[in-house]
Amino acid sequence: MVKIIYYADPTKDGEIIECDNISSFLLSRFTTRDELLDLRFFDNDILDHEIDQTGGEFLSINEGVVAITHDSMIPRGATAVWYVVVAVIAAAATILLTPDIPQLVAETGGSDQPSGTNRLSDSNNEARIDQRIDDIFGTVNRHVPSLWQVPFRIGVNNQEVEILYLCIGRGKYQIDTSNWYDGDTPIQNIPNASVNIYGPNTNPNVDTPETVIGGLIDYEVGVYKQSNDLNPSELIPPNEVDNANVDWKLTGSGSTGVMDATNIPDDFDMVDYYSVGQKIKLTDFNYFKQDGAISLYELDTIPVIARTFTAYEAPIDLGQGGTIEYEITAVTATSLTVTIPSTASAAVLTAWSEMSNYSIRSLSAEITFPVIAGGDVYYIFSTLVRTGIWGTKFEDTYYEVDIVDFTYNPLAGEFISSIVGPVFTGEGVTKVLLNFVSSNGFYKLVRNVETKVTADIQIKVYEVDENGDETGNMTPFIETYESNSTSITKSVFQTVIIELPYSRTKITAERLTFRDKYEDVSAADVVEWRDVYTFKPVSDDHFGDATTAMVLIPSNTQSRLIKQRKQNVDVTRLITEYQGNGVFGPAESYATDQFDQILIHQALDPYIGRLSLENINADGYMDVRDEIVDYFGSDIMTRFGYDFDTVNMTFQDTFMLVCDTVMCTPYVQLGVYDIFFEKKQTVSSMQITCRNKMINSESRKTDYDRKNDGVEISYRDNTDGVVNTIYLPSDQSSRNPERIELKGCTTALQATRYGNRVYNRQKYQIEYVEFDVDEFGRNIIPNKRIDSPDSTRFTKRVGVTNGYKVYDGEVVEVNGMTVELSEPCEFIEGEDHYITFTTVTGDNSAPILCTQTDEFTVSLSTLPAEPIYDGYEKDRTKYILVSEQLKDSVALIPKTIEFSLDDNGAEVHTISSVNYTDKYYQNDLDELE
């Protein structure tokens, strides 16, 4: 626990609170951005060491004593200007920056990860669990939406179809239906593919899509999960054993039966399959009585004798429907001796006693039955399914049968257990989707004729308790699985959807139907249970302020050509247009990639900036945009497009990212967010004189040693959505390039011009200046040119032959066009000299040509634009006096401004600057070669 001493008023006693960490205290006490930004944090007490707030790590402090008070309540001078916004806003980043929209994809947490759009490597539609919903601003082509539920696959007309539910992003979007792609293929070019797009605050389960590509998709949105309990498994037929192809010769005597195997498969040994004492069942052993001997007509074979065939109307099942068991008393390599159970029916007992020693085998279209002369002969063979008729042929003495479909050979033993499972569904699951597939088709060849087959699949749903144990309740489902109706030899993909009858279940599946194993049959009838998807419904009336899409992609010749499967689309965020002077257009109806409108919308967004118009210079942003267009001659440098996809960004980070892309510097002054467009600056905005600098605080360094000798700048091109890299110099000869990821940049020209500025700074930025300034430092804006004489050098004095011929100070007295200066100066003969005064706002006035009257007095050629103040009630007007040849030598570009208080509580602004030169901007107007 951390002990918080909270000083609502730092002049009074503080309130003591114990919390888990600083963040929990902030979230419990403060709700607005302004309150959070006004806070300051100290170790032990407010007069102790101030805690470093950079980066926001301090929010996790969970021990010790921390004092917190309001900056605005601390007694001191006028409110300071903040150039780097205090990081306390990060306290609520996860909550404040992430819209409260349900995440349907899963029930587990995840670490922060980039969206598929922003990933530099291969991008795909992926679930970004517990991550910020894509927040796109501007135009982003080939945007890769995140998954909002696990994709699932089903069979539709024996065609595999993938269903996806995607979140395009928060808010509304302009979407061109011709620019929705699967990989690089337009979705419109994939037969039977569909996309249904739903606007914010809708629910696809009850609402109509606002945009439809292809047809309507009628599948429920919810929490889908692919079960890990199932590996793709064949549902094996019950007769899938080696002895299913054995031909049997049966004889019986009393209570003993002998089963001799003939025509057995190679390497088949009864001893490997049976043992003495084992009990077996007989399947498909049916007893038929035939009156006399006959021969069935077979191809070119001419029978010797023909007799009338007569069979019992009801063949006797020696297995008695699987209800009786035979115990094995002896086993050899080719025979079994069994005990005929006394529980067998009279018909079964009679059949065994009447069996004679003749070869018995299942009927096959190419097998001739043995010819027996005289007497009754009894045969045992499997049930025949005959299509056609017995008919007379060749002088009406030969009989034939046209056998189109077969059943199965006799099986001695137990059925193979083909049960697959169980698959547990978990609590709350209301529906399952079971996929059964035959990748190589589901059919058989009978004498090389393709023949349709069917199989019954039994699915059992068991009720289980919280421990996974069966309760005794079970519901069976029988599903018929059959050949592809379009083409018998094509693959089969059938989906069974079951509404579960219990709250907790486990599921098994098995094939009930045998495989045809006749010699003249070649079966391609593998049934594989491939997938189980569980489904939980969602009860939300709508899914929040997000645009979503349901996508259906069938597996066909076109979709299978796609090398990398991913849904991607060209989008432009619809925002509320700011029209100037406090006037807005219709809400979320304006599609734009212009940065000024994006800055305004983000600042006013209730989840991002949470600001009001009073906190931003909205009209100024529009003016800056016009300034950039005028400078570059087109709006290409004002375009922006980026998918904000991380919770680890404050509004200030977002604000700076947008500004950096369009070469603008963001800053906050007097509580208002503003921007400055950096470009070639012929005059300085203000001057820092010796009267503002802290004594002996200035340091200067000239360094020609370049840390970087080139630039590698990457950006995401809106032409194809691919991350490209631009190299400067273009021959990639750099040994230590500066690597930059220019987020939000969408064109090569933008990236190249940006990179040229970086490259020019590497070459021409050689001076580094740092000094401390009093409260005047509030007025300095990073990257806005200033004048600041070198206070580390000697100033030229009367009688001194060498020295620094730049003079600065404050005005002592004004008398008409004559101005008395605080510091002596000496003009250089033959050179023009100019004096620049500060205005009441701290800016520079235009340089004025002047002449020297004496060492402390100059005469102006024209009046300054604003009056010069030489009184005592406020700061006197500051000046810099320099010859024309040296006026650029005092020009600096401030880069950073750090604020602190000295031991007396006075403001100190540490300014770090570099030399100014027009060469930084010499390639601004270059075009691509």
List its salient traits.
single chain; 8 helices; 6-stranded antiparallel beta sheet; 7 domains; mainly beta; elongated; 929 residues
Descriptive overview:
- This protein has 929 residues and is mainly beta.
- The chain has seven domains: 2-96, no CATH class; 136-219 and 540-571, no CATH class; 242-412, no CATH class; 420-537, no CATH class; 576-677, no CATH class; 686-701 and 766-920, no CATH class; 705-765.
- It has eight helices and 59 strands.
- Helix 5 (595-604) runs antiparallel to helix 6 (618-632) and helix 5 runs antiparallel to helix 7 (651-661).
- Residues 76-111, 290-313 and 357-409 have low confidence and may be disordered.
Question: TL;DR of this structure?
Answer:
With 929 residues, this protein is mainly beta.
